[in-house]
Amino acid sequence: MTTLVKASPEQKEALMKAAKDKGVDCPCCEQLVKVYKRRVNSSMARGLIAMYKEYGTSFGSLQDVRRKHGLLNKEESVMRYWGLIEEQDIKRQDGGRAGFWCVTPLGEQWIKNQTTILRYAHIYNGKCLEIEGKPTTIQNALGKDFNLQELMSGTL
Q: Are 72 and 58 in contact (CB under 8 A)?
């Protein structure tokens, strides 16, 4: 049985620094503790465009969008760390999350190439600690293999 020990602020800071650099085993639960640096990528951008094409800025089922558009990697929800999408705050009868998401006004601006976002999100335990890096457009995230105008054709 693991004994939980209250860590000092200095110990917490040292643990977080180690977790950010390479990951460490938690002294309490022995699980890997790591801060993940996620880069906005083409899969995320294509998923965001698909959501926008289906629902605009209204809430809709992310599962339905994934099925209809053949999105297999399920990275669209990561866009919440940049504030480009948000989840509807309702619960299912069993207490789980309903899975309804919408593109935010910032997400719509990014899709329309009217703004940029910073390239990296630092994620720890499902929460974004920091956004940093060079500003990037949706076309940068899509890469050279994808044409933004073609992907957006037929959009609301």
A: no
* Total H helices, total E strands in the chain: 6, 8
User: What is the per-residue pLDDT across 37-86, written as a single tens digit (0 to 9) for each?
Assistant: 889 998 899 899 999 999 999 999 988 988 888 876 778 889 999 999 99
Backbone angles phi, psi at 73, to 5 degrees: -90, -10
Nearest to 76 by CA among 92, 87, 90, 91: 87
pLDDT value at 116 more than 80? yes
3-state SS, residue 77: helix
Distance CA 9, CA 152 (A): 48
CB 120 within 8 A of CB 131: yes
Is there a contact between 131 and 118 (Cβ–Cβ < 8 Å)?
yes
The tokens describing 73, both together, are 């990697």
What are the structural domains, with CATH classification, of the chain? 36-143 (1.10.10)
